[in-house]
Amino acid sequence: MVEFDRTAFIKKFQEEASEYLQRLNEGVITLESDPDNRELIDQMLRDAHTLKGSSRMVGLIEISDVSHKLEDIMVKVRDGEMRYSPGMSDAFFEALDTIVFLSENAGKDVSEQIDIPAVLDRLSAVAASGEPSKPPSTPEVAAPVSAPEQGMEASASEPSTSSVEPLQKSQVRQAPSAARRGAPHQAAAEEKLQTRVQQTVRIRTEQVDRLLNLVSEVVISQIKTEQHARDLRAVQALSNEVHQAWSRVRARLADVEDGADSSLDEDIEILEGLMSDEWRQLAALAKEYADDTSRTSTVVSDLQEHSMGLRMLPVSTVFNSFPRAVRDLAHQFKKDVNLVIEGGDTELDKKVLEEINDPLIHIMRNAVDHGIEPVDDRIAAGKPPKGTIRLAARQEGDQIVIEVSDDGAGIDPDKVRAAALRKGFITATEAKSMSDREAMYLIFEPGFSTSAIITEISGRGVGMDVVREFVVDKLKGSLDVFSELGQGTMFRLTIPLTLAIIRALLVRVGEQVFALPTASIEETLRVDPQEIIKVEGREVIRRQRRTIPIVHLSEVLGVTGSAARTNKTPVVTLGFSGHRMGFIVDSFVGEQQIVIKTLGTHLQRVDNVAGVTVLGAGEVVPILNVPDLMNNARQLSGLRRREPTAAEQVEKGPRRILICEDSFTTRELERSIFEAAGYEVETAVDGAAGLAKLREGLKVDAVVTDVQMPNMTGFQLTKAIKADAILQGIPVVIVTSLEREEEKAEGIEAGADAYITKSVFNQDTLLDTVDRLIR
Amino acid sequence: MSENDTSPTAALAGRAAEILRQRAESLAQVDLEQSAVETIGLLLFRLAEEWYAVRIDGVREIYNDFEVTRIPRLPSHVLGVINVRGEIISVINVAALMRVASDQDHSGVREPNGIIVSSEPFVSTLVVDEIGDIIDVPRDSLEPPLSTLDKNQADFVSASVYTQERLVGIINLEKVLEPVGEPV
User: Fold this and answer.
1) Cβ distance of A622 and B69 shorter than 8 Å
2) Is the pLDDT of residue A141 over 70?
3) What does the H/E/C string look like for A414-441?
4) ipTM score
5) Chain A residue closest to B119 (CA)?
6) Structural domain that includes position A80
7) Which of A28, A157, B51, B162 is most deeply buried (CB count within 10 A of its CB)?
């Protein structure tokens, strides 16, 4: 297991703690005047509790101890065992200051500067008596405490002293022994406080977003300004030519007219003077304007870069919680796994970071579950007993590449083919003609799993397809898989640095320009009309031994495309979740970086459109949503994999399942769930009865069984079914309250197809699982 | 309270109830007087022959002469989006939404008159035929919308007011700005 990077956690803790401490400080002051504020008491109790917990997590035991005492007091106040009185504030402020001091000096030995045991003693005294013992430097405060009426009186009669004094005292006692040790320490402490204030400012993300919005507007007008500077130079060149032409005319005039008319000569001279002035001034203006523009350009691009940087955080802020997660997963799946993290300081947009956690966890869960082999298998294969998962992040241009690789068994393309064939994702011919690499991508098919058993983790319908869709849809990135049998598997996530900017291909359809995220584009082609083949009424093209259906983007979008057909039809092929499709456009406009903007608050979700961008000229361009496009295109051309229609289901007869369950309530509950979903339900009160029914020739599509039943357990029943030549094809779903890993392992051993614990049991999980197994 | 009941407590209670009733009445009176002088601000706009208004506190700005970017497959009353100083805002053809006549067919991309309105948190632009004055009307001059209104319009008009010798329908912004599509 990797060592925890405690320092990163401590930083997180410090940030978090400052919020709680602020609130607790405010709370103490409010409580002085309003000692019965229940809500506040509860909140302060929670805050103290959270501080205790999180400080303990990062190993700051002293903070945890102090918070614990605060919590004790707040519990007593909440339970009415004591009443908060202003006299207690001293001890509270002292404790809070101590926590601030400890938090700022996290990891350092501060026993010289601060006397923790004394602080704790004083808090204990408060907790014990409701009255604080007097710290040495505290002047006497008349703080009657226990009798409620007196307390009320106190808070009413001396609000000024009670709210001012604690503040003074907290200053005096910045570090309790500082006073004794002399001024320099205190000065140092104050200096420290100042630098801390300067280092971080907390800003709401909307504020940053609004700023970025304005910055991108500045960028756009700057681009326009640069264009104007170029225009101005063109005008200057024009004026240059005019002046030269004029000079020639003037020379000719001097020859021809030879002093004939002096007034004309005068006018010619005036004109000459004006033109020279105009030419000179224009030249000066153009130069000045160009200089200004280029200066502003530098500033604007710096401004853009820095303001984008505001949202950037190192990936370690997310990665740092992974060692723990992987350790838990390894434990859960009974594997021995080491997590190696590389490139934790790579920076990423905060929004992307927030979204990236779940897909990565899911990929790592897959790696632990399916990738890394059990220790014995690894030793047998000559590998180190401990598996390794490598999580590496790096920046490549304007993209971040995150790779999750394991040194496990790798993905067996043949197994994938077989599973895909069994589940009807592909036909036998397709399986044969498919390359190993193509076969590997079948794992991104919705509902695909090679796993022998569905546990609730991999069985809740969250497969790699969902992960990939998320990466493409939400993060505008791509997810690829590379694997070598016996050597391991690598998932590569390529995502844009920021959700605000992506690379996109601009295409024209009719009169409008649309943007397609480059990450989803496989290739751009120019296709000869004769290359487009009609198959069963659909248009397809052949590309590297693959058949790619093509559709008109204009039809999918419902806009008018250009009617003119060129010899070479521009086609963009998009790839998403294992599907490839070509979209005919009118023309390619070009590829560039674009700033993503939402459609605003009023348009919350629009089919096919993920957002818009504003081009340099101020033109607003819709950004297309690739998963939507693929779905709609498939629907449009009837390519969508058909869900069995109601009529077909009737034709096949209703699906029938057998429920083996000794508890009447559970049995009837399950029966009603399945019947409501259109199943025909048979029941048996235990395993033996169930098996008897099956052997008598009862035909069912699946068996749902409990584990602990009289006569024959669910495990025994499963074994019996799987050992029976006739029955072994029937999927068995074990539904049980047993949640221990050994039990799950036993279920797998018995040959169950799915294992659902009742603690996660809900209707949808059960129906989804059975539905999937029957398909 | 019965007249025959002469016990001192009952009499006292009766008196107290009377005092309370009087006080309540006088308070209600004050309320009426206050609301009589209370006014609300309206921005008038025209659609074909008819005049409508939006409450001024829902108006963010008047936006003239802009180009709308079409977005495919939007509901028919949403024309597209515009870029207002970096913020993308949708454009609503309010005449189409209420199914009333308009001078323009809004088939082109240029629009002369827009009112950017908001009903937190939603913001959009209404395209109209003409933007009129900002007026103040007494709150109690507001009437319920015409009962003869078409159902489509009745939904979007929250009240009407007779001012400057015409009847003006006040637009229900909350209804007009109902978001399009499921939240992501």
Assistant:
1) yes
2) no
3) HHHHHHHHHCCCCCHHHHHHCCHHHHHH
4) 0.76
5) A602
6) 6-199
7) A28
